Amino acid sequence: MNRFFGYCGLWAAALFFAIPQGLAQTAALAPVRGQITDAASASPLPGAIVRWLGTTEATSADEQGLFSLVRPAQAGTGRLIVNFLGYRADTLVVGAEGAPFLRVALRHATELAEVKVEGRTQAYSALTPTNSQVITSRDLTKSACCNLAESFETNAAVEVSTTDAVSGAKQIQLLGLDGAYSLLTVDNQPALRGLATPYRLGYLSGTWIESIDIIKGMGSVVNGYESISGQVNVRLKEPDKTDRLLFNAYGNDLGKFDLNLNVSSSVGKRGSTVLLLHSDHLGRCVDRNGDQFLDLPLATQYNVLNKWKYKSEKGLVAELGVGALRETRQGGQVDYRPDAPGRYYGTTMMATRYTGFNKTSYTWPSRPYQSLGLLLNGTAYRFDSQYGRRTYDGTQNTGQATLLFQSILGTTAHTYRLGLSYLHDNYHEVYRTGLTTLPETPEQRYARENRFRRERVPGAFAEYTYQNAKNLTLVGGLRVDRHNLYGWFLTPRLNVKYDATASTILRLAAGRGTRVANPLAENTGMLVSSREFIIGQNLEPEKAWNLGGSFTQYFTVASRPATFVADYYHTEFQNQVVADMYSSPNQLVLLNLYGRSFSRSLQTEVQVEPVKGLQAKAAYKFLDVQTSYADNLLPKFLTPRHRLFANLSYATAFDKWRFDLTGQWFGRRPLATGPGHGYDPLHDPAPAAPTAADLRFTSRYVLFNTQVTRAFKRWEVYAGAENLLNYRQANPIIGASDPFGPNFDAAMVWGPAVGRVTYAGLRFQLQ
Questions:
Q1: DSSP assignment, residue 10?
Q2: H or E stretch including 52?
Q3: Are strands 32-38 and 101-106 parallel, antiparallel or unpaired?
Q4: H/E run at residue 103
């Protein structure tokens, strides 16, 4: 056990048991509290009126501008209206989750007759005890967000990278760690996990998304034990709150087009439904660098989701949803044909996914702070894929259930949640190399090529939240799970939020995460090379501690709100399934951690609005991600140590015109030695594992994306360009002329392979 785990484990345990156990990531049913001030002078506004939109629940601020307002019995995500004579009214969206202490800065109205109710959502939440950032539906229109992978282009916290130069698979990075270490949830239920990891970012259309919550560090134990670096929660369009009709069409100069249609309607007095449709297609062969490989795979996807919602007058809310997806991909050499591959190299993938979920909750009408909920979801996912001569097929059937009860201890300053959960995963993977092996029986071959795993994990959890009326929120949780293959998982987590002043917030997070790795699915990019996969026996679950915190400062520039955020997180692994690219150039060795593995992430970001309509944000990120490879502690390959980010957005009056520009600078990335390189395994001695001094690094480069949008009454027309300067990685595919030879490697992708992409589209809305 390393020194970090010893110190941080003792510290986290002492701090965890010093408070009452059980912690909700957010105090969901506590009354909303806050302070109302003058935006220019920051002085309190006594007598300001606060009320829930559509209800009679209201209160007024005291002489310090402070207020406390009970939530309506059925308030989930509600709108809070703040009024004061001589000031412009403000409307704030208050989620059902979060430690609700609001700071509302009202601005003077130039003429009383022109007072308007306007909504505003801060990117960095001042309410939640976790370090949370929100990407709103408006943010998603700043770029061509055809799917979830493209939804982070105007965000500095998450980086999206391509796994290889052939298949088109993408993954996110959070705190310098691959996307498998961040929990992806859809409407706060775990989704798109396991074998779906390589392509999951393309399985959610951008037009389906209402908002995205990015949570760094430890979150709630309610969502399970798998989160290590953080959580990305995608909130889909709600049937009773979204537009009646939304149509979106997109096309680019590569020949790709997307079509999206959202339709919602009421069903009786209490019901509503929304139908979400998506299709995309790329059927044109694109080879701009002339290496005879497609720069992007040919792909077609059909995706549908139907959600239903029922809300009674007596506290019962029920949601039901079903979805289906089918996708095909073909990459590789331009002349490759799946039905007659011949001597050409190609990749194919066909995936089908069916999913269903149900969420039912009951809130006691006389006790708006007390509720009981049942969450169910199930997924059937299957794919068949080919990587040259290799075959990789998989099937995953998943079922999850959570029973959740929440209430208070005496007053709403003390809330708790108790629950039971059950996870069932059934995996079957087939991996064939296409190479002849030593003589073996059919039974031996079947055992070598087939990997089975059935997981049954019952669990229980408790969370407790303490929130005083002024400046302190403590959220502590503990869950215990019994894995049928690996025994007991113990997951403690803690989040602390302290408001040092009315505009200064300090947060601290600590906890542990555990996950069972899927070594083949999480390294499919390495299949597009001549490397041989060596998977160790008796791989253990991955376990890590995460400790970190953030500093948030709200201030004004030219009487307009601005935000500065700095955060630091340290993730230390007790065990990790390490993909060793360094020790042998011709092999990818997957073994349990022997030594040390950690990630250190530091990020600073500032957001300002210097003049009306102009929003600017800039960020710097430093990453130190290292792992022991053959006794040498080396930086993780293809992870940049430094990154700069900037975004400018300008909107004219009434949002008729919108202009967006995003720039990103990436520092050097360490490269692993590619296969071949003159090494003959039959005659040459095994090469020595490299040291830090032996590493090669990529070039530094800059990317710019821009978009212009023109809005009409119900129409919006937009056009833009990605990779404006047309930067491309030279030779993204090594050995492209001999893809079946020993030097072939398409996995060392660190920059764009396509170059500049221009696009245009339109949206039509009926609210």
A1: H
A2: strand 49-52
A3: parallel
A4: strand 101-106
Say if CB 216 and CB 548 are below 8 A apart: yes
Residues 263/242, Cβ–Cβ less than 8 Å: no
What stretches in the chain show pLDDT beneath 70? 1-30, 40-42, 54-56, 72-78, 85-86, 95-101, 108-122, 436-437, 676-689
What dihedral do alpha carbons 745, 751, 755, 756 form, nearest 10°?
Answer: 160
Residue 488 CB coordination number (10 Å): 8
Q: How far apart are CA 319 and CA 357, in angstroms?
A: 8
Judge whether 627 and 599 are in contact, CB under 8 Å.
Answer: no
Residue 236: DSSP 8-state: E
Dist. CA 111–CA 88, nearest whole Å: 9
* DSSP conformational letter for 389: T
Residue 547: Cβ-neighbour burial (10 angstroms; 0-12, 13-18, 19+)? buried
Half-sphere exposure of 161 (CA within 13 A, CB side): 22
pLDDT, position 525: 92
Give pLDDT, residue 676: 63
Which backbone phi and psi does 694 adopt, to 5 degrees? -90, -10
In this structure, are residues 603 and 157 in contact, taking their beta carbons and an 8 Å threshold? yes
Q: What residue ranges in 539-596 does DSSP mark as E strands?
A: 542-557, 560-575, 577-580, 587-592
CA neighbor of 163 nearest in space, from 331, 338, 341, 289: 331
Q: How far apart are CA 731 and CA 737, in angstroms?
A: 11
